[in-house]
TrEMBL record:
It comes from the Bacteria. This is Ionic transporter y4hA. The chain crosses the membrane at residues 37-55, 67-88, 100-121, 133-153, 165-184, 218-238, 244-266, 287-310, 316-337, 344-363. The keyword Hydrolase does not apply. It comes from Pseudonocardia eucalypti. Keywords: Membrane, Transmembrane, Transmembrane helix. InterPro entries: Alkaline_pH_Ca-Antiporter, NaCa_Exmemb. Its main location: membrane. Residues 33-186, 220-361 form the Sodium/calcium exchanger membrane region domain. The keyword GTP-binding does not apply. It is found in: Membrane. It is a multi-pass membrane protein.
Amino acid sequence: MSAAGNHSKRTTITPVVALLLLAGVWGRQLPPLLVAVVAALLVGAVLVAVHHAEVVAHRVGEPYGSLILAIAVTVIEVGLILSLMLSGGPDAATLARDTVFAAVMITCNGIVGLCLVVGALRHHVVAFNAEGSSGALATVAALATLCLVLPSVTTSTPGGTFSAAQLGFAAVVSLALYSVYVFVQTVRHRDYFLPVEPADGQERPEEHLPPPSNRTTVLSLVLLIMSLVAVVGLAKTVSPAIEAGVSAIGAPLTVVGVAIALVVLLPETLAAVRAARRDRLQTSYNLALGSALASIGLTIPVLAAAMIWLPGPLVLGLSGTEMILLALSMLVSTLTVVAGRATVLQGAVHLLIFASFLFTAVAP
């Protein structure tokens, strides 16, 4: 069998095997050897998810491909947060905040920084649409401030929480802003989110590949969803091992939310880096900022509705350290996107902020 045939077979079988393993280990206490097996298959499911996301993206074109992956991952991430909040007891009150904030920091600093470094090392100077990226960034900044900073300073309820009316207002605003962003990205100003043509005038060879058939696209979409379900489900099964490791090193429980976000955002990270290597930084920005927007704009409304039956409070307010990191991230991100061009320096700055976020999460 050819290498292409083996690759096609692997990308088809892996999601099925991952879901079968998930069904077998769900709700069980895993021994160390089985944890290693689950982790290995988790990585395989992530790689397969990226492959099928690229197939779908090639068929529907940008920015629809990035939007599909961002929404698919975020919807399943919300399900993971809800399931962990139901089974986590009082300690899970801050899980949603920790996961959403981690998603914002990972996307705006980790993914963006890595893509800028990879792209600039390969192409020296990378270009993207300042109009689309700055609009998306402004929406991220507004949603993150309204949903994660405001609860820390409001006085209706204590402890970084919203009152019922405030939470409902935040949910409506989040959904409205995200809906406007999707409309602008896909309808009104779609050209702002398309990759910038190379400065050297050379054509990208992948743009001339024939798009996959409708049948192949539908199959890839189904396998993409299966892979993402497997990724999140397997991540949940190894979460007790993650929590045990966090407790063993004496780190705060905030690290659990960071770990969840890192695993869930792996498909977007790999897809964004691949786009950066091909000098398609706008696609990388679409994936990164689109994921940040979906993480807030879809998670907050669902959690607001779920709090009708979820026990315990929902803590959304960030600490002082986290608010400083968020403000620094938005400032640096604004300076990066305003020119529409970047070098390895901007990427290094973003990665340094991301490293600072990880360090303060472990040692607050």
